[in-house]
Design goal:
Blueprint: E1 82-84, E2 90-92, E3 101-105, E4 110-112, E5 118-119, E6 124-129, E7 132-134, E8 139-141, E9 146-157, E10 165-172, E11 175-176, E12 188-192, E13 200-211, E14 217-223, E15 229-231, E16 239-244
Antiparallel strand pairs: 1-2, 3-6, 3-16, 4-15, 5-14, 7-8, 9-13, 9-15, 9-16, 10-11, 10-12, 10-14
Length: 247
Amino acid sequence: MSTLKVDKLDPQSGTALEIGTSGDTISVPSGATLDISSATLTPPATMPASSGVNFTALNATNLGSGTVPTARLGTGTASSSTVLHGDNTWAEAAGGANTPMFSARSTGMFLISTNVFTKVNFGEELWSVGGTLDITNYRWTPGTAGKYLLMAQVGLYSVGVDDMYVEIQFWKNGAFSASPLIPDLGATRFVENERVSDVTQSFYNSTIVVDDGDDYWECYVKHGYPSSVNLWNNGHYTNFCGFKLIE
């Protein structure tokens, strides 16, 4: 191998300089620097394999076609239910989902004694997503820690007395639990109704509760009518539902 030592090579024609012949390999040895920072580099249509470690200022507006695979757009798993967040991670959309959630209704009419708290028999599941809805013991366990909105509607049949109160409570793990988030409601509500006979009247209550994940919830009702009153289920009068709040 011979060595040619010069300071500059110019093409004889003054237009183009060709180095090597097709099939030859032109190499720059380790430790040497090929400086083309002030020149114009015209790459081939198909770029050779390269690590790209020094490609630090690529302009995405120059991507004329094709798509960038989601695997190259962040960590985590890209799917129809995730979005790419500002920290370059794939995760659920901001806020998350309102699950676990459930809805149940009473399955029949039964008597509620006066001035005694009675658990309402929400024995028919309308729908349930996550958590455990126990339609045998009439209770719901979210299974996920968080804040939940609970709502109940109770229908009482043939209520006809002035200023009769109805109290609806949400019980946590078998005992009344005042809401720490809405202390004024205390997970209970008193209702006065006008004198109306031979009708079904509906009473409502709702509150926000905190669940550790394994707490279960039940709905109890008490009335002040002088004698027992029928809790009425006619498909839609008596319901119990709840869902997780997005934080």
